Prior knowledge:
The complex is a heterodimer.
Chain A: H1 3-22, H2 27-38, H3 41-47, H4 53-72, H5 80-99, H6 106-123, H7 129-161, H8 174-177, E1 188-189, E2 197-202, E3 209-216, E4 226-231, E5 239-244, E6 264-269, E7 275-279, E8 291-297, E9 310-316, E10 334-339, E11 344-352, E12 361-367, E13 376-382, E14 394-395, H9 402-418, E15 440-444, E16 449-452, H10 456-481, H11 492-510, H12 526-544, H13 549-574, H14 581-587
Antiparallel strand pairs in A: 1-14, 2-5, 2-13, 3-4, 4-8, 4-12, 5-6, 6-9, 7-8, 8-12, 9-10, 11-12, 15-16
Helix pairs in contact in A: 1-2, 1-3, 1-4, 2-12, 2-13, 3-13, 4-5, 5-7, 6-7, 6-11, 10-12, 11-12
Chain B: H1 2-10, H2 29-44, H3 59-70, H4 73-78, H5 80-90, H6 95-113, H7 126-139, H8 150-161, H9 181-205, H10 210-221, H11 224-230, H12 236-259, H13 265-284, H14 288-308, H15 313-345, H16 358-362, E1 371-372, E2 381-386, E3 393-400, E4 408-413, E5 421-426, E6 447-452, E7 458-466, E8 474-479, E9 492-499, E10 514-520, E11 526-533, E12 542-547, E13 563-569, E14 576-577, H17 586-603, E15 628-629, E16 641-642, H18 646-672, H19 679-700, H20 716-736, H21 743-760, H22 762-766
Antiparallel strand pairs in B: 1-14, 2-5, 2-13, 3-4, 4-8, 4-12, 5-6, 6-9, 7-8, 8-12, 9-10, 10-13, 11-12, 15-16
Amino acid sequence: xxxxxALLGALTVPATFATMRACGYRMDTALLASLLVCFENGLIxxxxxxxxxxxxxxxxxxxxxxxxxxWTKQGQSFTGVWWFWLLTTGVLMGCAASCKWVGLxxxxxxxxxxxxxxxxxxxxxxxxxxxWGMHFASRAVGLLAVPFAVYMFWFQVHFxxxxxxxxxxxxxxxxxxxxxxxxxxxxxxxxVFYGSEIRMRSSNSQSGFLHSHTHNWQHDKGSGQQxxxxxxxxxxxxxxxxxxxFNITVDSxxxxxxxxxxxxVRLRHKITGKYLHSHDKRPALSSxxxxxxxxxxxxxxFAGDNNDDFRLEILNGDKNEVGSDVHVQxxxxxxxxxxxxxxxxxxxxxxxxxxxxxxxTEVNCMRNCMPRMSTWHVEYAHYPNATAEMGVxxxxxxxxxVWGKIxxxxxxxxxxxxxxxxxxxxxxxPQHWAWLRRGTAYWxxxxxxxxxxxxxxxxxxxxxxxxxFGLVRAVLFLMDKRxxxxxxxxxxxxxxxxxxxxxxxxxCHYVPFFLMGRELFIHxxxxxxxxxxxxxxxxxxxxxxxxxxxxxxxxxxxxxxxVLHVFNTFSYITYSRTWTKDACEKTKWLKTxxxxxxxxxxx
Amino acid sequence: MESRNLKQRGHHSPVxxxxxxxxADDVAGEHSRGAKYTVDTLDADGEGASSKTYGAYPIVxxxxxxxxxxxxxxxxxxxxxxxxxxxxxxxxxxxQDLVTVMVLTVLSLMTRLYRIGRSNxxxxxxxxxxxxYAPKYLNHTFYHDVHPPLAKMLVALAQVVAGFNxxxxxxxxxxxxxxxxxxxxxxxxxxxxxxxxxxxxTCLQLRLSRPMAILAASFVLFDNAICVMSRFVLLDAQLxxxxxxxxxxxxxxxxVNKYAEPFSHRWWAWLSMTGFSLGCVMSSKWVGLxxxxxxxxxxxxxxxxxxxxxxxxxDYTMHxxxxxxxxxxxxxxxxxxxxxxxxxxxxxTGPGEHKMSANxxxxxxxxxxxxxxxxxxxxxFVDMRxxxxxxxxxxxxxxxYPSMSRQQxxxxxxxxxxxxIWQLHKGRGIAANYTLDKIEFINHGDIVQLVHNNTGAVLxxxxxxxxxxxxxxxxxxxxxxxxxxxxxxxxxxxxxxQQKHSKRSDKRxxxxxxxxxxxxxxxxxxxxxxxxxxxxxxxSQSEVTCLPDSTHKKDVKSxxxxxxxxxxxxxRMLNDDLSKYVKGDFIIDMIQLNIExxxxxxxxxxxxxxxxxLESDPWSWPFLIYPMRMVGWSDKTIKYYEIGNxxxxxxxxxxxxxxxxxxxxxxxxQRRQCSGWRSGELLELWDNSKLLWGGxxLHYLPFFLMGRVTYIHxxxxxxxxxxxxxxxxxxxxxxxxxxxxxLRLAAWCIGTLVCLVFLYFAPFTFGWDRPAKELxxxxxxxxxxxxxxxxxx
Lengths: 603, 793
């Protein structure tokens, strides 16, 4: 199983060579670049384990290879080979984005170079507007539509493969769950009458049922009355009976009376007989004076009071179900419950209660609540006194379409991505990546261990190459403005265009991480690192271009030898070879590299 | 004349440099412009009607006149700037403009002052600014607020003029009889009044034609939202005024800089004026910083162009220095001056003082720290604060350490609390009656015991017990002394390190100004607090330890072992005024206040689950989705509704959103050389509109990144720019269309329409005292809560 990532990792080396050649560099520079990529310890560690990052780096690299190839075909617009490379770029981009969202950073990188290309083409008056429009459209298709289709395709495959319910099912909405085999597959009585037994679900994605049980709120902070919570699983404690408001009777002798919007109702907990109740007490997890505790209140022989009364307001119904915006219909009607005296809505706070409330979700009554978080629907309804001639109508969730499923799934991915705020000991912030402040310990055994650390020489030199490019670009820009045009030894245009593209790509794969609050690791830098390595190769070429061949070759050999030497030095932690404590300590070039030399043998 | 121009057109000069943001494909653009005016002149005579021109409507006649007047045509054609100098500076203002400005001012006065004193309620945020903060300047009590002081000080000024005595209006929702609130409102409204003529003058600087400049002013005049926010004692009118003043000065300076001699008197005057208004706008509200950014970007572009122009290095350096002085130093000085006056005026203790340092509080007249005995004696009750920033005051409470000595915890706690009070006793074994015995001052080298006032426990440390977190130090605990009175673990030697503010180098211990160490008498370790926090059992308070091994470092001066007495209670001594002894540093006070303002600002975070009819999200502003009720909505109250003039809001939103697309289109056309644009013209267009669109974007887009609560009136500064941009675009369209034939007519029609819509919504602006239901027909969007609120419960 480790073979596939390793193979993909290995393939990045020839892909590097191809990219260099496509960028217009000589054989020796291309070889050197491939060598730098090949002997990068961090990339090696990455590809030797079953992780998602190896495919991501592979597809990122291949996308840029294809994109460089596409650029070599600039003179042959709209020919077969031109289309081939354009579409290949698109497909590979789609694949990269489907591995990890980091792949999406390819879009700004390639997008910016496309925009600048199209902008240059505008100036070309030999190009007719129609022809320019075709250029524009072909890019839109190849670089936006195709990747999007590929992304969708992989999701289709995902859903096709994972068609049964699993442990993550409960994170999805009921509409999503109905599309899974073994997921929610039921129907319920549609109409809700006075006297119906219902189960009410909070209409958010991570939702649950309005719940109560024979445990009470705390006496010191709360009222000490029975707890009301939200609980994710359907059980008997979620069953409530709809009753008319306090001191109101409804005559059901002529048949069941449906519950209408705007009517005031009471909800009786079926098992304990307590009414859903609210009063001027702060809820368990909030001291906000706009929020009130919900409790179960009542005892035998007590008729209740008007603090049990809630006005039911339907917010929206289902377009295909006539009357679902007037009469409460299971599943189809989405409504709010507003406490009659306090004018607050039953509100899902999404906060977890402490152990004494079994870590269920808090629900309270909130004034001026946004409807989004106070919307409920009936998921199960049953009228006990139903007679045969009533002709019970059924309701069921409408399964989500494929688009709906993909949309919901991606939304959930974004949410879980945001909530990845753990405290991993080897997490690293982006400002520490580029200069290789520290690595990641993967695994440690007796005498040997795996510690992901890059080849420091390659990291530092590539960072320097990028800084140098920035400096050169700025100086050239200012000199141009003052009408001085240095040619950089004839390498100006090839250096500026190739290094320019890859520096922007590097920035697109690096800078956005600074804005991310989630937990990050050094392996997030690898796509950017590959681009930086290419810039390093470009820079070496720039400096050696005008040198005699023999000098140039010896410089290259010296660089390669140095890189190999450093690679060998750090290969112990890459391949978990056994080494001595002394050698280990000596290798700690920076104090912040925290691989564990205590466990190295010997010494 | 014409032949010369034709010759000029054919002449391509390679020395004209490329200028950003446009690549000058047409390097002769500037020259072509010079020619164009003359062709226009011919147009006016009906001779060159077929020539393709871009008519600069009002400038034409001026050029003609000046050309004729000076007769210096050669120069004006070879050196375009000379023509422009004439056209650009002298041509902008004419005597007829004075009449226009006066008419506009009168109209503005009418809309802003009409029935301004009608409601005696303390309306909307008047409850903050008019009745809470501004009176503080009148009675000199210190307060804390998120906004910088200038706008509030102007409110206070208005209150002084209105004869207000600065009494507390916090409790009431109406102005009492004796308050001349109308006079206050009138004065604040003047800033709003000035906005209208300023808009006109700004548009002239941006080269709008006169009819369209008047139209732009009437947009500002007839926007209901700007009008209603100018009619109350708030900060928005001042902010808008200074924003408009900044735009006007920046536009004028841009023209002067372009066409007049650099470093002339006029040049310096307008540079300073820009800097001055920047200082004022950022001292009114922090959104003023967006103006600073706008001017900064424009200045950077200008300096970059000058760099490309290869002007001499001495001049170029001078340009930089002038900008740094005028646009950075001057505004900063004004900003600081406002705070300086703020501190000078607020010299009494007040509700906001706890945000400031103890040093600052001790200088506030009447504060707890200001009024205390200066000398410390045995038997005094003191609060001791660590010099180390953060932990706070030496504290103890009945909770015990879970391990080691298991005695009462000693911590540091940032808030005032009776558990911070310690009584200073004489060393172990010396019996003393602190209420009767002779008063004895504590001096350098004296031995003291610290007795916790609430629990009677004594501060102690011993070698047996190590500190809970920093295990290389000894634990510090409080213990009832009787149990182990034979062991001298509770004696501490006072070592005065610094007498901060007294001139004599005395040995005596003083409140606030003496910095000292407490050295354990037998072990020699030092009472210390660092940044480490105790876990839950210690209530996350800071760990206090005894730093050992101080023998070879006798004179430790790191802040973690230094303390001072923040408050001293002693019934046998008279209270002193500590401001005599405590000296402050204005810069430090100001920085601290600004940091606290920032903290308060970010604490204003909204509850996303809560529906608040007053708040609205930035995306909704340009489209006027959620106007805001400014008062309670019962049938009898005089109701004010913050709603803009919808057609102005919508049209200006469309124009501003389209602007970047249009710009790209123009640039693309220019690159293809397929339009009538020449680079000089496009550059002119860019120069005249960049301040407007840039101002809109900078005053609007950053709100999307803000976490704090946002209200619809946060859009008003952006709206001002947008309204001018709208007029600018109308001007552009009608200048082109039939060569300006319908420009005047269009201005009249649009102006009338805008005025009618303004009047239609005027009941919301001037107050409506009948049931809101009667205005139900004016609900153009279903989200406008004119009479019902769909989400309200």
